User: Fold these one by one.
Assistant:
Number 1:
Amino acid sequence: MPTHAEILTSNALLNDTTTPLISVFVGATSGIGKLTLRALVATGASTRIYLVGRPSSHARTQPFLDELHTLNPRATVIWTEAEYSLLSETRRICNHILAKETRIDLLFLTAGYAPMFTERQETAEGIEITQSLAYYSRVLFILGLLPALKAKGEAPGRVVSVLGGGLETKGGVVLDDIDLKRPGNFSGPGAQRQYLGLNSVVMDRLAEENPEVVFLHAWPGWVDTGNVHRGVREGTVWGVFVRWVLAPLIGLVAIRNEVAAQRYLFEATSAYYGGGGVEWRGKGGVNVKGEEGRNGLFLVNYKGECTPNLKAMESLRENAREKVWEHTMRVLDQYLVK
């Protein structure tokens, strides 16, 4: 496991050559995405970043954009507006970025929130909103931008999806109701288990089919990003509990923001995970196939440590992957570029 000192040493080596030249951040108007984006800009490197944010986030994000420009005038952060809970909007933004860029070095995905003790809420496209954000939209961003992620560059393109990598269980995916539509199947904890399992299953297949790209599915642990309030109705019993009990508790045990920012910057740029990025000397991370020093899918915990979860991933690969893939492709089919 990389120590915090080793992470800081690696991040200090980021410059115009080792920093991702072109990045796409989805969901970085708050939380871990925002922390990582600021840390990337703070390297001082010349880099171009597309910040994909919802229309309702633009006004409150403008001061952050101004801060980034002051922090590093050599970095170009391009506000890219999209209601990315809608798959049609996700496809539009992928096409928009591909029309401008032939190569993408980093795709960083953090959009979404935990649907704790709330009922199903569907988008205009008929998909439960938290599942669209945490799963379908993320997969569509990867598939839509894959041609640019695979384009030849100084290092392999990299995808970092922050949700729950390493927490998979052998039976953690409900295969006969993947979208959790049946009464009793949708709940906060159940949805979280489902979405993190779905992400790992599909990213496992994508990593096999695209060995020139590095995939990370990360679990952030406790970070006080404020997202615990997302989807919570004020005045409800759960809302009161979150405000007066859960949120203060998270504040007490959470990883400091500056520590989390450096860890995710490391995950986005270090050759510890696969064969590209800032050079790593010594034992590297192990992917979900148990391989060290090779590309693939890496499940990463809140310390930056690889947790391959080999038995669970082997079971999911054998028993769930193809069914999940076929279902996902049916849902995404009309939004894929043909």
Number 2:
Amino acid sequence: MLDIIIIGGGPAGVSAALYAKARGKNILLLEKEAIGGLIGHVSKVSHYATVGKDETGPSFKQKLIDQLNSSEIPYAIEVAKTLKTTDDGFLVVTDKNEYTAKKVICATGVKLKELPIAEDLTKHWAFGHEDSVKGKTVVVNGGSDGACKEALYIAKFAKEVHIVQMQDKLMCIDEFKRQIEAADTIHVHTACSLKDVEMKDGKCTKVLLDNGDVIEGDGVEIYVQIGQVGNTDLVASYTTVEDGFVVDDIQSKTDGLYFAGDIRKKAVKQVATAVADGCLAGVLACK
């Protein structure tokens, strides 16, 4: 039996693993896809102490992997399917194995919401798709920090970028607003949303907005950043979920179960707050 299983290999999960391993615990970190979680996909990691000027999601992801390896923390790429309490802890069943542990830290993070139209046409992340947007018209659906950061990155390669959001003004931080306002190739459409698309020869040639605006191009690319919802299915029976997020504190109402990172309902979701959560979860689970 393990002392602690950490489910989720993003910043929160890696942070929890580092603090638990440093306290001599026998641990295992489980991650369903790749170490880093969503942050491993972003075009730029910013506003976190020590990151480089041009830190990308993949480069930040590699730093997390290097930290796990240098601390000799075991991890496995497996999907946690079920979590059950036992007489002396928990049973975690994955798509490959079964594990038992005295305690569990759930840091399963979030998934991005999908656009209800043209799901087969849309992408979430620009990094790695630079060639597909070169010289094209691109629509970024969303006006948050994440959406605007991706729009600014895409604008380096695309012919023009259209940011579309439902609010009457951009919701991103001032740093991104100033960059968007200074960019001749970025156009902002507020108080509206995507209504429909028109296709020709297998390509999207028109994006229709519900305010009557039409965005046209030869193969319009659509990127979606319209919010997140917590990956709570695994723990829904052990906690209260509101608006898709866990409302428990880091130390949950279930003895031996802890929550860390963006799965929690909180005011600020950033790498910094995820790492802080992971630190506290790792330390508390060791007591």
Number 3:
Amino acid sequence: MTDVEADGSVTASRDGDVLRITLDRPSRRNALSHSMIETFVDLLTDAATDDSLRAIYIRGAGADFCAGADWVSTNSSGQRPRTGDLVRRIPHTANRVIELVHSIQLPVVCSVRGWAVGLGCNLALAADFTVAADDAVFWEAFVGRGFSPDSGSTWLLPRLVGLARAKEMLLLGEKVGGSDAADWGLIHRCVSSAELDDVTEQLLTRLASGPTVAIGLAKQAINHNQHATLDQAMTQELFNLELSCRTTDFKEGLAAFREKRAPEFGGR
């Protein structure tokens, strides 16, 4: 096996105005190596400033989505890392992936088959829309391995499913299947494995044909207003409204309404 195959890769391709990202290390359930995470951060950083993009799609190669960060390889050298290694490194690697998915002003869609564990689970939770197959399993495995949760899990889970269920997943390490994840509001939707690709593509098409600036600003306001008072939230909405009303898509939306037809948004 070559070093590239052992370390895995994160590949990206353009499909019109959709960026398709694949976590490609199926022999390790797409566990993310250091090099994979670095590539992932670079791809998302570039996407954040690419005005030609209108949506991002993230999937895993093979039967699983992502088994998290590859802690086995990271700790197999036998050499003790320098004190403070995690504090120095993780904000720029695993945490940065979650921050970018959460904050990028483009809709992010994940499709999940099989295992979504640790960082992989939190990546799916940070996305705007996660569609899971009915064989999917979401697992925050941190405490069961003897260390505390990271990559945003203690922020994401209580907001999505409430404290009681967040503690089930984080403190007890309970695994959650795709159907329960959808019922709990952890993800957007659960479908059969045979339907997963079609349902995901329909969602991507809908998002990529929408008013991209308005969608991005709405996402920004939702995130900002998790910490805001009502007055602060409405003020943020006003600033975003001022920006979105200056777009070509806003003019198209008004014209379509007047002419009683479906709008054709260009993402500008």
Number 4:
Amino acid sequence: MIDLRSDTVTRPSAAMLDAMMAAETGDDVYRDDPTVNALEAEAARLSGKAAALFFPTGTQANLVALLCHCQRGDEYIVGQQAHNYKYEAGGAAVLGSIQPQPILAAADGTLPLHDVAAAIKPDDMHFARTRLLSLENTHHGKVLPLSYLEQAWQFTRERQLALHIDGARIFNAVVAQGVQLIDIARYCDSLTICLSKGLGTPVGSLLCGDEAYIEQARRWRKMTGGGMRQAGILAAAGLYALQHNVARLQEDHDNAAWLGAQLSAIGVEVVSQHTNMLFVKVPAEQVAPLQRWMQAGDVLLSVGPQTRIVTHLDVSRQQLQQLVARWQAFLQP
């Protein structure tokens, strides 16, 4: 099966599974799991933050990040298409009583700072209190420029806002820019790192920040049901991923660029390609037939008028060649 719906579908390799089975474990709620402690220490080191906390999911990590920055009745400014606004079931509002203030992102994935400034509420009892700017890196595969992050960091310092980065695919940004994680993380108060997308682990995310922030996050993690026990089995996968699966993300980027060129050559309208994500237009009358055609050939795509294709470590260039051939056969039966 060739599965290009998302990089969340990746499965642990044999070497990663070996590392998981050999993991030393303890009770992480008591902070006694040495492998979890090692993973958190490594995430803190790589990000340049004082501390990190391991979560079962990225949604929970983002929720806790918001809960730590904002109180009931506060507000965070966020992109209209950002994951922690649109795709996480409204958790900040429902569970945290935190009001989102979404704004449209620019074509490059950034939130224009003049629009952010216009969205900040006055200090008036009629309004929610604006406390946080939340950015997403990468955003639909687009890497936020370091120059923009530096400007956003200075902007939030001047306006007494915190800055959070939803870094679900932050290492794709690291690899695409040829930098280290610390070079990006220096421009935020907190960031999340997802381990179960391009890095290939079965589960898990990390939240990084200063020590007081992470202590607060630990309490919220427990309250929201994320306190795990012998979680070292899962943390071992994260350690393996950070050691072995970061540099290879470039293969995914190269494969996405190659695929975009090949699909364009057979007449598919490619809208954009950034890092490991490719977006193509599919005519309305082709959506359902193409979905069935691909599935019959053991290819999984989430076909829609604008179809996202995501490359990852479980899809080879040879398999992408099969995809192109099958698409061409669909267009030219």
